[in-house]
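Sequence only, no structure available. Ideas?
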Amino acid sequence: MPYRKRPAVVLGAAALTLLLGACPGQAGGQAGTLQAGQRPASPGTGLDRFYGQKPAFKPCDPQMPPGAPAVKAECARLKVPLDYQNPKGEQAEIALLRVPARGKDPIGSLVLNPGGPGFPGTEHAAITAAVWAKSPITERFDLVGFDPRGVGASKPALDCYTDAERDRGAKLSSIPAGIDDWTKQETRRLLQQCAKRSGGRQVLAHVGTRDVARDMDVLRQALGDEKLSFTGTSYGTRLGAVYAEMFPKKVRALVLDGAMDPLAGTHERRIQQATGMQASFERMAASCATKPDCPLGTDPDRATKVFQKLVRPLIDKPARTSDGRGLTFEQAVEGVTAALYTKALWPVAIAGIAELEAGKGDSLLKLRDSYHGRTADGVYPNSLEATLAINCLDEERHTPKQEIALNRAAFEAAPFTDHGRPIKEARDGCEHWPVKPTLGYPYATNIKGLPGTLTVSVTGDAITPHEGGINLAKELGGSLLTVEGEQHGALLAGNACVNEAVAAYLIDLESPAEGARCHL
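Reply:
I predicted one. Tokens follow.
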């Protein structure tokens, strides 16, 4: 499940849009090096007109969450080929937002990605500029965010469901299986819907991470940078690592925060994530247990069973909500899971669980809606639908037998999410996708000629466990900054230790000492 981190100073409904990070995938690829047709094309192979672009940036007014300072931004669009093997064919347009450097001696551009996959980088760049308003980073770099192909304001945009279908619980993943599973007919219909609403099957075939990495290299050149400086959180660490694999000599600096493990395939990584979520749930329950009115009880060892007893009845009878929509089992679990991305949201989840005791679901539904980006008038962004479609190209594609095994293992690893019903048949929503997966596992290994990188990893990160950060730093041959804390990612946490280490690396290319640690 994706969720993105925003610092407490701007927490709120809009804040949750930046907490979204690593989403469980449903597709995949073969292990090893680049597959046929995946090698990066370069200028001189029909791509010169794309690499030669000079985006026309014009002042724009990004929407900022309440309490965040305004930033002076400028926007533009970048054209890229939909299929890099056919540069004369259909094109995509990438939405860009730039916040110019505050100082008079800028180093260049710092390209940012907030995670997902499927979340817009334009909003992320504006908010990061606000959070880093006094940082030496914003003095020395233009902050540049882009909405990856298929995402946000980029065109064509991925779209699979109507807002009404999203409100009714349109499926975005096979987990949890056993309540309302995709049938073979439904997975075929999913492909048809996504293709029809997104611009055709050819769009669905070209939205994977390797496509976005190529776009990022076109963007690097268009911004006038000889080499790329990049900061990515959660899924953004996958994007940065894949760029490093494909364009190692074009890398200046990579900051990878909340790392996805390049060595773990879909099943292993999702079980790592489920294990981390359960551990975080139990730590939340232990914190709650110190208070006499804790709805999970005073015995943390029984908290999972208490929670199951509260949420499992919602399968047959949703809890009432003030807007009349009701709160389902899946929505209740999503709401609690959203709060596991940062300790700051634990009290919100606990309050929501307490409401369930009285048969009310408003607080958990609000968490769930923020997680999905739903507005008060019922409009959804395309972020999670983009997550689904992008993962169809990035993740390992499972047979029903493999998907059933994944679900059973996930419930065993995170029993607070288990509905207690038998799993009959789970299907991979991507089973009818028009092309095979294009990422490949493992990725970003044995890279030659890559300069020093910086991986930032939080010890209590439930969504991208610390082990993945250790593995990524090792595979890239770069440095690791370990951060003691309870949240997903650390770059926007407002922590002086993290901020100083990241600024020293980005500006002066000075990596932290081996074994360096910060504390949130």
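The chain has 17 helices and ten strands.
Hope that gets you unstuck.
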